[in-house]
Amino acid sequence: MSVAFRRESDEEHLEPKFELPIPPGPNLVTPRGLELTRGKVAEVEAAIAEAETEEDRTRLQRELRYWNTRAATAELAPSPAKDEVGIGSMVTFRLNGQTKTLTIVGHDEADPAHDRIAYAAPLARALMGAMAGETVAFGGKADAVEVVEVTAA
């Protein structure tokens, strides 16, 4: 038989398992985000202890490495100045005639379905540093977003 048709094992043809990607830049978090990260570490550790298969254990250990790294590199974001949009701010704004309220948080705490966006998101970057009553550029349009209210989350 030709060497081209011989295969030692199925393992050599599997896709490589890479680590979970970590967002670039500092790992800025809110106090809530830090607690969520620590909780996730504990949750995954418990799941590893209860894992029934080696495949599940391997997948969970990969996830645990991600959360341990995020917990170890977490930096509490400085509190924004009063009435200024920053990480940890709840912002009410008007965009395209619609009024919305979002909270700006760290990467791992972001949950757009529950109105929490990461500070690195384009809208959050546009809002950062603005104060109530100001307008900011967004999507290539000057004065596209009007900041209505800013409160601490």
From TrEMBL:
MF GO annotations: DNA binding; kinase activity; RNA polymerase binding
Domain annotation Transcription elongation factor GreA/GreB C-terminal: ranges: 82-151
Domain of life, per lineage: Bacteria
Q: Which keywords does UniProt give here? A: Coiled coil, Kinase, Transferase
Instruction: Name a single GO biological process.
Output: regulation of DNA-templated transcription elongation
Q: Which residues form a coiled coil?
A: 34-61
Q: Is Kinase tagged as a keyword?
A: yes
Pfam families, per the entry: GreA_GreB
Map out region (Disordered) in residue numbers: 1-30
Query: In its keyword annotation, does this UniProt entry include Magnesium?
Result: no
UniProt protein name: Nucleoside-diphosphate kinase
Q: Which organism is it from?
A: Sphingomonas zeae
